[in-house]
Amino acid sequence: MRFWAHDRHDFPLPDGHKFPLAKYRRLRERLVAEGVAGPEDVVASAPASWELLGTVHAASYLDRVRTGAMTDREIRVLGLPWSAALVERGRRSTMGTVDAARDALGRGGYGMNLGGGTHHAGRAAGRGYCLFNDLAVAVSALRAEGFFGRVAIVDCDVHQGDGTAELFTDDPSVFTLSIHGGANYPFKRATSDLDVDLRDGTGDDDYLFALSDALDVVGGADLVFYLAAADPWEGDRLGRLALTKGGLAARDALVLDRAAAWGAAVCVVLAGGYAPDVRDTVEINLATARAVAERAERKV
Ligand SMILES: [Zn+2]
Q1: 232 Cα: distance to centroid of ligand 1 (angstroms)
Q2: Could you tell me the pLDDT band of residue 158, with boundaries at 50, 70 and 90?
Q3: pLDDT at residue 300 greater than cutoff 80
Q4: Residue 292 is part of which domain span?
Q5: How far apart are CA 227 and CA 46, in angstroms?
Q6: How far is the CA of 299 from the centre of ligand 1 (A)?
Q7: Whole-number Å distance between alpha carbons of 198 and 155
Q8: How far is the CA of 221 from the centre of ligand 1 (A)?
Q9: What sign does the CA torsion over 261, 262, 263, 268 have?
Q10: pLDDT tens digits for 252-290?
Q11: Measured between alpha carbons, how far is residue 84 from residues 74, 88, 178 in Å?
């Protein structure tokens, strides 16, 4: 299977900013160093075209993003300083999810983007480090290419997938599931097909029961987008849940096994992860990548 990367395109960040810029490169390097992927299996994604982005996002919003005319308020809500490099990177991160979803459907059932999961971006607004909604852009691209199967978005980021919920609210062919900390950001929410609010400090067992029940409700899909975020981890700076690394691995197995039982193709994306030491986030993401690669191997 292939892994899509965009981390060679850096963007400037103020010192001490919480966005984990370092995790993407470190993850790619460890993936290859530990033999989870051969160097030729890690592919750099191209930037998503403005035309494709325009099938999901409002033209006026894209104009402001492209030209650096975002308002101060828009920048504040996004949480990242605008730069041409940020926009370039966002387009590449988005395209990585499109590419990984195509892989999932066309190359043995699995694809993974070493980025993406930018689920807070809505039609006309970037939010919470998310400039474009890669999930909606990927679905839009696949639909244009003739894929009309059922889609399930299994969003296991600790923060609710408000942008995704907003963008798919009128699309009955896409089931949006978000399982997250009830007291976490965002505080103004859109409604997913199924939202599961968990109490502060929820640990492995309660989480896994709740997720299993939620997947029962989803019931099936032809393509699953799995947001395998590291931020439900107990040590995360921005999350309020208390999963262990073992619990997160069990979560990955639960989602991947359920998708396999449905006969679904799976596109995995990273979403959030804000451990004080970025190595913890990378370790969690690496375990996910390994679990996906093992399943892809078995299927071949
Ligand atoms: Zn998050």
Answers
A1: 8
A2: very high
A3: no
A4: 3-11+19-299
A5: 21
A6: 31
A7: 13
A8: 24
A9: negative
A10: 999 999 999 999 999 999 999 999 999 999 999 999 999
A11: 16, 6, 31
Measured at the CA of 281, the angle between CA 137 and CA 117, to 5 degrees, comes to 10
Collapsing DSSP to helix, strand or coil, 273 comes out as coil
Instruction: Of 130, 111, 137, 87, give the one whose Cα is nearest residue 5.
Output: 111
Residue type at position 175: F
Strand residues in 49-113 grouped as ranges (E)? 110-113
Q: Where residue 108 falls among pLDDT bands split at 50, 70, 90?
A: confident
Confidence (pTM): 0.98
How far, in Å, is the centroid of ligand 1 from the Cα of 159?
Answer: 4
Ligand 1 centroid from CA 156, angstroms: 9
Say how far apart CA 289 and CA 243 lie, in whole Å.
18
Q: What is the dihedral sign for C-alpha 125, 7, 98, 282?
A: negative
- 221's tokens: 């899909």
Look at the chain and report how many structural domains it folds into. Answer: 1
- If residue 253 lies in a helix (H) or strand (E), which one and from where to where? helix 245-262
CATH code for the domain of 285: 3.40.800.20
Rounded to an integer, what distance in angstroms lies between the CA atom of residue 126 and that of residue 10? 19
Using the mean position of ligand 1's atoms as its centre, give its distance from the Cα of residue 236 in Å.
10
Q: What is the mean pLDDT of residues 225-232?
A: 98
